[in-house]
Amino acid sequence: QVQLVESGGGSVQAGGSLRLSCVGSGDTYTYRTYSMAWFRQAPGKRREGVAAIDPNGVTAYADSVKGRFTISRDNAKNTLYLQMSSLKLDDTAIYYCAADRIWRYLYEGYQYWGQGIQVTVSS
Fold this sequence. Notes:
This protein is mostly beta strands. The chain is built from no helices and eleven strands. Strands 2, 4, 5, 6, 9, 10 and 11 form a seven-stranded mixed β-sheet that branches. It starts with a strand and ends with a strand.
């Protein structure tokens, strides 16, 4: 089993920045071999992929966040990050981190999920 725990969420004004973190752990967890991703789900909407990163550092972003969000990982700390800048009202959502040994890009099929953390952007 792999456990993922997100942190760093909260409330921020539009135009502001926030950094999310996701720490991974588990008996058979070898963080550096996993592809990782951030998803989000806004009220009344389907969950969507935001950003993903493979074990080699190759990244992918949803069009809606390109140029504003940056995904990164620190394998020594088993930690995934999402630096969010120029936040908009539409970025308000519950954000989830996800992990899988298979590269799943921004699709939903990741095997392991965190519990989610709220990000609220206000005007």
